[in-house]
User: Fold this.
Amino acid sequence: MAKFSNVFQPTFEELKTGFSIRGKWKSDIFKNNYPLVLELGCGKGEYSVGLARKYPNKNFLGMDVKGSRMWKGAIDAINEGMSNVAFLRTRIEFIEYCFAKSEVDEIWITFPDPQIKKKKAKNRLTHPKFLKLYSNILQDNGLIHLKTDSQFLHGYTLGIIEGYRHTLEDAEHDIYNAVLKRENMEIKTHYEKLFLVKNMPISYLRFRLKK
Assistant:
């Protein structure tokens, strides 16, 4: 992937000393001023690529630490000649080193590890620790989407939203059996397909952070 023009793999030292793309994703990488949408824990990048196909007037950036998974999305984007999708290989804990204040317009969190054990709570991607990081890089009223197979994480996140007085816009514990059909649910990740084979319900949340 080091040869891929749509993949960025900064070292921690590069991030600490000042990542050259921070604050310049739209101008220097995507060459436009369209909204910037992050997919956190993107895996094979199915949502980043899938959304980029649907919305040519938005920029999509998949973020994950595992390059072996990310390779699939990156090569698909290259093969399709897509200029509005790229990938960033680093830890989500380092997100503030990668993006300037209010640089991001929207975040998707797709099938993260729910980190069910109590001692792992701070590793949940909707833990207040992470939401504070997202708040610093998101535009005011920027949306966050959570799509997960974990009813535990769904309920946990609902509790965080209520407890910290964030704004809940939508919540559904079983999207494929719901009366109301949501946009962009047709895009399915590798893991989602495995969960659906097991008849596991897929849940969805959409919310905005209180600043």
In short: The domain at 7-208 is CATH 3.40.50.150 (Rossmann fold). The longest helix spans residues 67-79. The helical segments are 12-18, 25-30, 46-54, 67-79, 95-98, 128-137, 151-163, 190-197. The chain has one domain: 7-208.
